[in-house]
Amino acid sequence: MTKSRTAPADAPAADPQPEQPTISRFGLPETIIITSRVDGFRRAGLAHPAQPVSHRTADFTDEQLLQLGNEPNLVIVPKAD
Question: Which residues sit opposite 54 in a β-bridge?
Fold first, then answer.
């Protein structure tokens, strides 16, 4: 008879997907600065230049903010007031 190898009932379930960094409206400043690593790279309905550009976070939908925040070709920093 073979012993079954299962986790104890009180053990936390393993998370199959690592948590992805996200950006959301909560905790974001009113203005962010977006710089593209590739000039003219398109994301969230905009072509982003290689130069820093200020954008109001209110101008983006939640879905667009997630797209921007998860895009490795874009550098996003909060604008200092």
Answer: 33
Contacts of 32 (CB under 8 A, 6+ apart): 54, 55, 57, 76, 77, 78, 79
Hey, which residues does 37 pair with through a beta bridge? none
In three-state secondary structure terms, 2 is coil
**Tens of pLDDT, residues 2-11:** 555 555 566 5
Long-range CB contacts for residues 62-67, cutoff 8 Å, separation at least 24 = 62/24, 62/25, 65/23, 65/24, 65/25, 65/28, 66/22, 66/23, 66/24, 67/43
Closest CA to 44 of 25, 19, 69, 10: 69
pTM of the model: 0.67
Per the domain annotation, does 25 fall within a domain?
A: no
CA atoms within a 13 Å half-sphere pointing along the CA-CB vector of 22: 10
Q: How many domains does the chain have?
A: 1
